[in-house]
Structure formats: structure tokens, C-alpha cells
TrEMBL record:
The chain crosses the membrane at residues 21-41, 179-200, 232-255, 275-299. Forms a membrane-associated complex with FtsE. Keywords: Cell cycle, Cell division, Cell membrane, Membrane, Transmembrane, Transmembrane helix. This is Cell division protein FtsX. Residues 56-160 form the FtsX extracellular domain. One of its GO terms (cellular component) is plasma membrane. InterPro entries: ABC3_permease_C, FtsX, FtsX_actino, FtsX_ECD. One of its GO terms (biological process) is cell division. The keyword Zinc-finger does not apply.
């Protein structure tokens, strides 16, 4: 009988404040969708780091004849065979080096034509203008500075470049976008909490006569508060369910279908469905508990008769 009374009061409260209940559901849904999206963005960045950091190379570019005439770093002339052998030998001795591949000037020219054949500059380049290089795969991508320190400024070396630096700029941008989403999420959560508190107080005010009678006949505070807390929890749970739907629909249409980013941007290793599904219980739990706790603390003082 008591459970039936509580459930009936929940339905009455939700219908009586339908507009504010709808506003709570929408604000909770948006804030939790941003929350889930920020978690997924963090997972995506971590996945991309693991994928790309495993593929980055350190490149040691060697001086050619054109560099010897124009670049002060190559003032002693183009790299000699002895210098190349010495560089290769030193690289193989370094414990941080996993693999070393040599790219000749002809190979560099061929790769350039394959990638940038439509560029206006491609017709003016010749193989002798391209640089030989050693492409080094490190056991730990964070150890780039060890190679840079050992070979920068050495005779025959024009420059030492780390591809990880370019990736760090990309990941910094993605992390910045993620923090912006977190900031918007926090603002939406505050708005949602304020709406929940106001909705609960309006509902309690409209039923103040009933709650007063219940208090006089000996009903406990928890029993009086339960319908209001459950109203907020139900609205929050619906909002959490909508947020879960938004995350699923977003993953489906943005990556698998619709925009089909997984096919159009095949250089990115996108997170799978398992990562999305793993976040849904957390989103639902927050959607249920956050409004319930907000209602509980809002009512502790307000329902004292």
C-alpha cells in the first residue's frame, strides 16, 4: 500500500510540473551527453596516442650538395660514405633504437612524387635536391632527445626531426577541445541542479497542505520526502536514458554511417562500440543519483513543519 501511494504521488508530481520536469530532463540529458562525450574523447585521444606513437619515427636528414651551398649546418660539404657508415653504426649501438631504415635521395624523390605530384613545385625538383635520411624507430618514443643530442650538429647531418612533435600539437588541440566540452558540461550540470531544486520546491509548495497533514499524523520525514526524491530521480533517469541514446546515435551516424568517418579518415583508429557501451551504466547511474541527492538536500530544510 505504501509503495502504491509513493508511485501515485510520483505520477501526480511529474504531471503537475510537466514543463519544469521536461526542462530537467533536457538539461540532464545534455549535460550527461557532454559528460559521456568527454569521457569518450579522452579514450579516443588515448587510443590515438597508443596507435600513432607506436608508428612515429625520428628522421636524421643528411646534407646534400644543395645544402652545402645554402645551409650553414652543412658548411663542411655533403655527407660522405664514411660519415654515413659512422652514423649508422652509432645508431645501431644505441639501446633506445629499435629499427633503422635508410632512405636514399632517389627513394625520397619517388615518395615525394607519389604524395605531392600535383604540387607546382614537383616539376622543378630533381632527385639530387632531395635529402638522404635515416628513419629510426625508437623503443620508447619519449626518448627522442637522446638521438637528437647525439646527432644534431654532427658533420654530414642537416637536421634531426621528431614526428612526435607534430602529433603532440594535434593531441594538444584535441585535449583543449575536450576541456572545453568539460567546461560546458559543468555549466549544464549546474543548470540542471538548479532546475531540479526549483522543481522539487515548487512541487513541495503545491502539496504543502498534504505534507503538513502527513507530518501531524506521524509520518516520518523520509516517507514524506520519498515521492519528491523519486520524482527527481525518475526525471534524471529519463534524462540519462536520453543521453545514452544520444551517445549511441552519435557513434552510429558519425563513425559507422552518415558521415562514415571511419572510412573517410582511415588514418585514425576510432574507439569501438565496447568503449561507448562501457560508459552507459555510469551515465545512467549519475542521471539517477544526482537528481535524487539534490532533491534530498533541498527538502531537508524545506519540509520541516
Amino acid at each position: 500500500m505504501r509503495a502504491q501511494f509513493v508511485l501515485s504521488e510520483i505520477g501526480v508530481g511529474l504531471r503537475r510540473n510537466l514543463t519544469m520536469t521536461f526542462a530537467v530532463i533536457v538539461s540532464v540529458a545534455l549535460s550527461l551527453a557532454l559528460f559521456g562525450g568527454s569521457l569518450l574523447m579522452r579514450d579516443q585521444v588515448s587510443t590515438m596516442k597508443g596507435y600513432w606513437y607506436d608508428k612515429v619515427n625520428v628522421s636524421i636528414f643528411l646534407c646534400n650538395k644543395a645544402d652545402a651551398e645554402q645551409d650553414p649546418k652543412c658548411a663542411k660539404g655533403a655527407v660522405t660514405n664514411e660519415q654515413k657508415d659512422q652514423i649508422l653504426g652509432d645508431l645501431k649501438k644505441m639501446p633506445v633504437v629499435d629499427k633503422v631504415a635508410h632512405e636514399s635521395a632517389d627513394e625520397a624523390y619517388k615518395h615525394y612524387k607519389e604524395q605531392f605530384g600535383d604540387s607546382p613545385l614537383s616539376s622543378s625538383l630533381t632527385p639530387d635536391q632531395m635529402q638522404e635520411s635515416y628513419r629510426i624507430k625508437l623503443k620508447d618514443p619519449e626518448k627522442y632527445q637522446v638521438v637528437a643530442t647525439a646527432f644534431s650538429g654532427r658533420d654530414g647531418v642537416q637536421s634531426v626531426q621528431d614526428q612526435k612533435g607534430y602529433l603532440d600539437n594535434l593531441f594538444g588541440l584535441l585535449n583543449g577541445m575536450n576541456w572545453a566540452a568539460v567546461a560546458v558540461m559543468a555549466l549544464m550540470l549546474v543548470v540542471a541542479l538548479m532546475l531540479i531544486v526549483n522543481t522539487v520546491r515548487v512541487s513541495a509548495f503545491s502539496r504543502r497542505r498534504e505534507t503538513g497533514i502527513m507530518r501531524l499524523v506521524g509520518a516520518s520525514s523520509f516517507y514524506i520526502q520519498m515521492p519528491f526524491i523519486m520524482e527527481a530521480a525518475v526525471a534524471g533517469l529519463i534524462g540519462g536514458g536520453v543521453a545514452c541514446g544520444m551517445l549511441l546515435v552519435g557513434r552510429y551516424f558519425m563513425i559507422d554511417h552518415g558521415l562514415e568517418l571511419s572510412e573517410k579518415i582511415n588514418l585514425i583508429n576510432f574507439i569501438g562500440w565496447d568503449a561507448v557501451l562501457a560508459k552507459l551504466p555510469l551515465v545512467l547511474a549519475i542521471g539517477l543519483l544526482m537528481p535524487a541527492l539534490a532533491a534530498f538536500f533541498a527538502l531537508r530544510k524545506y519540509l520541516k513543519v
